[in-house]
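agent> call fold_tool(seq_1)
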Amino acid sequence: MKAEEFTDTLQFALQASGCNNAVVVQKPRLFSDNSSCYVVADLADYVDAKGMDHVRGASHHP
């Protein structure tokens, strides 16, 4: 999966959930593993632009 494909999917999820328009104290966090589509600079820029945090973990992480 390319970063652009993932950001399109994430944008759809944000719109569908209303999180991109909601007034919240804490913005949503993206929790992911370290696969290639999650560690590219384009995704980091996108997540930063949305004011989100990106938390990376390992499989079966609590």
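agent> call fold_tool(seq_2)
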Amino acid sequence: MLIWFASSYPIHAETKAVYQNKIEQTHDEEAKEKLTFALEESLIENSYLGMTGKLIEPIFAPLGFDWRMSVALLSGLAAKEVVISTMGVLYSLGSDIDEESETLMEIIKNAIPLQTAVAFILFIMIYNPCLAATVVFGKEAGGLKYIVFLFLLTSVCAYIVALFGSLIAGIISNG
């Protein structure tokens, strides 16, 4: 729900009006579909979620992640399985996307190079576990400082492994 809210607000009425006008004036169904997709993409990119993604994008740029992938990593802090549905929302496919969605797989295959995909998968597998596991760890270990330690340690390790994975995948795919 938080991802939906952050991807839907602030409302850009002027952008919607301009695109709606173009869509109404177009008689070609394929052109209408492209304009609708462009509208959704523009609204998401200029939403709170898009702004957050663009803010943290430079941190993940060495791994080849764009703002969408950076935001998907943030959503994965709540639960790693949310990464896929977040990517579905960010790639303007709607929220009913799961790991078996052919549309999402095709778009990701075309938009994300192998080298970046390897880094993304490695990062997801290594960085901070879900929020519930993190809270339990904090309670068992002794408090907030251990939660911060867990977050920093797993994030740094994930970043380093993802960077090496990206470099190795680049060597293999080019070699």
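agent> summarizing second result for user.
The first helix runs from residue 2 to 8. Residues 113-175 form one domain.
agent> awaiting next instruction.
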